[in-house]
Amino acid sequence: MDKEQVEQLKIQMQQWVNEAEKFINDIPPVQLYVAVGVVLSTLILLLIIRLFKRTTSNTIVLTGLSGSGKTFLFYQLRDGSAHQGTVTSMEPNEGSFILHSEEDKKGKLKPVHVVDVPGHSRLRPKLDEFLPQAAGVVFVVDSVEFLPNCRPASEYLYEILTKASVVKKKVPVLLLCNKVDKVTAHTTEFIRKQLEKEIDKLRTSRTAVSDADISNEYTLGVPGEPFAFSQCHNRVIVAEASGLTGEISQLEKFIRENVKP
To answer: GO terms for CC (predicted)?
Structure first.
């Protein structure tokens, strides 16, 4: 575009601006105010819709220590079988699907986005990629090997319950005691009480750490009282399951309470 063409374009644009100003000046004030009001109302409505869509997540995060049976549960939810869940996961299993138990139901069902985050300590940072979008978190505990893993499980659960992405949005957490079909499995009540005791100890030790070291955490529980899950900012539910046998009804109920069909 040469210099002469640029000048012609400037003149044309100035004419458009002048015509637009004249058009606006010719509009009666009342009509102008109404038009502006309609535009503003539309923009506000679009903003509300956009914000609402952000809050209606369909993501359920499965997490817990390595070997707790998360991958079994993932495949039971998706396929109704644990045939692929025998190997410890080193990468997140992720998929959006209708729950296997709902495949025969009539009508339109909302798919659930399920993410199985590996429990290995080196891979846990991957959890932070999914928590901001989570509609619910399922923390899986091995009911058989619970006692030797009580401390590390409590530490991991403490981290989740104090994360800003969980606390601010009040993301519900399901404490799922897996492998309850085994004779040597501990009861859900026993597991709950032991985790509460360990988290109470952690809470005491963490409060002694400087604010700079825990700037991204929220305080758990009520000062001066023994810790209980009922004191959490978000809802914490205790349930049981067996990924091997496919008894996951309480898990499915939690999912559908937080991801509506």
So the answer is: signal recognition particle receptor complex
The alpha carbons of the chain give a radius of gyration, in whole angstroms, of 27
Q: Which of 65, 124, 80 is nearest to 251 (CA)?
A: 80
Distance CA 251, CA 176 (A): 8
Is the CB of residue 66 less than 8 Å from the CB of residue 118? Answer: yes
Give tens-digit pLDDT for 2-50. 666 667 777 777 776 677 667 667 667 666 555 566 666 677 777 766 6
> For residue 109, what is the DSSP state?
-
Question: 26 Cβ partners below 8 Å, 6+ apart?
Answer: none
The answer to whether 246 touches 82, Cβ cutoff 8 Å, is: yes
The CA distances from residue 218 to 11, 12, 66, 133, 194, in Å, are 61, 60, 25, 19, 22
Q: Parallel, antiparallel, or unpaired: how do β-strands 112-116 and 173-178 relate?
A: unpaired
Find residue 19's DSSP bridge partners. none
C-alpha distance from residue 168 to each of 118, 165, 199, 214, 256 (Å)? 24, 6, 20, 16, 22
Domains by residue range for the chain, with CATH: 3-53 (no CATH), 57-258 (3.40.50.300)
Burial 49-88 (b: 16+ CB within 10 A, else e): eeeeeeeebbbbbbbbbbebbbbbbbbbbbeeebeebeee
Other beta carbons within 10 Å of 229: 20
**pTM of the predicted structure, to 2 decimals:** 0.75
Residue by residue, DSSP assigns 165-183 as HHHTTT--EEEEEE-TTST
pLDDT, tens only, 196-214: 999 999 988 876 554 444 4
The per-residue pLDDT for range 75-89, each reduced to its tens digit, is 999 998 876 555 566
